[in-house]
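User: Batch of two.

Assistant: Item 1 of 2:
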Amino acid sequence: MNSTSDTDCPLFPDKPGQCDVLIAIRRTTGALSLVGCIFMIAVIWLFKKYAAFSQRLILYLSIGALLNSISYLMGGLRPDGPMCDFQAWWMTFFDWTVLLWVCCITFNLYLNVIKMITKESLEWVYHVLCLGLPLLLSCLPFIGNHYGPAGAWCWIEDNWHWRVGIWYGPLFLAIFCLFVVYIYITYILNRKASSWQGTYDPDTERHKELMKEDIKPLRAYPCIYLAVSIFPLINRIQNAVSPEYPVFPLMVLSALSSPIQGAVNAIVFGLDRETFSRLTPSQIKAAFLKRISRGPGIQEYQHQEDGGTPY
């Protein structure tokens, strides 16, 4: 375990132990998120939930969050060099990946609720966006060597123009847009739920069930991202206003909430009624044996009296 005792603690030069506390908190919550993401990916794979487009979006978000949690497990402040640059690049790339997958999920919810359409054909566009844009933005700080020791860990060095341009500016704008769109989606859903009350209509009921299948699994994840972003945003605003006076309790709250998204996602995912009903030892064992079976499995044939070919 790297300790700030080997390097300076720029945030609290008189109390380097506080940097160690922040790093330990980030590692702990990062480990919880790592376990949570592995759980989600395993369940989606085990029960073949990825057959549904909404579950594939959750899968992609989980993979991004898993890789992002690794950046929190890499440790704390390192001397300036290739390893510090790599940690900073990794964190930037997968922070962006997670944010963009949340944006894609929100956009998909918008299409389902407002436009009442499902655009699975956009899946490849989502992949290009969520991999291409993070790759571009995470490589830009290499121009001029802006990655390096930053606070209690490695990231963009003390240059607010680069920090705001690469991350905080787009992040603040994205969170504001996510918040507005999410409130609008919730409002429209509630209004539609009210309009559905009354006389039974088969077409309306069928449409309502299809909407529930597409929307219900995804609604929580943008909300979770917004919730865990509150303290980091407050902390960064405070840093920008008074960079020479960091607030340790606020940084603790930020270190607790920043990496925890994967763990909270896993709790919400596991408590979903359909998923929770499958998480019994017998069903897990049966699904696992079916997944690892190499045979063709049991096939159903219909007997024909004339000796024709079964199907």
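Item 2 of 2:
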Amino acid sequence: MTDDLKLNMDAYLPLRDVVFHTLREAILKEDLKPGERLMEQQLALKLGVSRTPIREAIRMLEQEGLAITVPRKGAEVAHMTLKDMEDVLQIREALEDLAVRIACQKINDEQIQKLRDSAIKFEKLAASGDVKRLAECDVEFHDVVYEAADNPKLMALLNNLREQLYRYRVEYLKNPEVYPVLIKEHEEIVQALAEHNVEMATGYIHVHVANQEVAVKEIIERQNQ
């Protein structure tokens, strides 16, 4: 276990969420590596907290697919697998297609402007290479589309899936070579929605998800070699 693990305190979050964000960041930065044990007592001592928020944070990590509990062994950092990635992105593609179809009919000028602002923000952030902020901005972009669909039940499904997607989104964004592609895809999606062109918008969304799948598949294959 890394010696650099420190609690990232936030006065506005419950302790379990602070522990969760600290561990999640450590996993995504690979300070905690796939297969590494997440021992409650050891983590509690290192972070200066009790075992209860550690246990709760590990459950949250399991919900995101970042940790798994192995029988008779305990919790450990999950390996990324092609099957898990394909399953998650397959569901995402279907739900995003539905969200875009509905949004094409309902989206208003204010939401189109929010999409444009988010796309511009992403382009500006790309120069910084700040993967965490880029991931947050990409989430923000898609959230505007979901908001425009105005379907709370669909939004709930997408929000739940977003947690499982986070690791793959971050891995994708670690490669600066994909930034120009993402910027172009965001622009195309905004334009199609602004024109209320369902066929074009859904086509762009499918390409958007497919490009991520190809890139992350290559990453997983390299890691498993």
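The beta strands are 67-70, 74-77.
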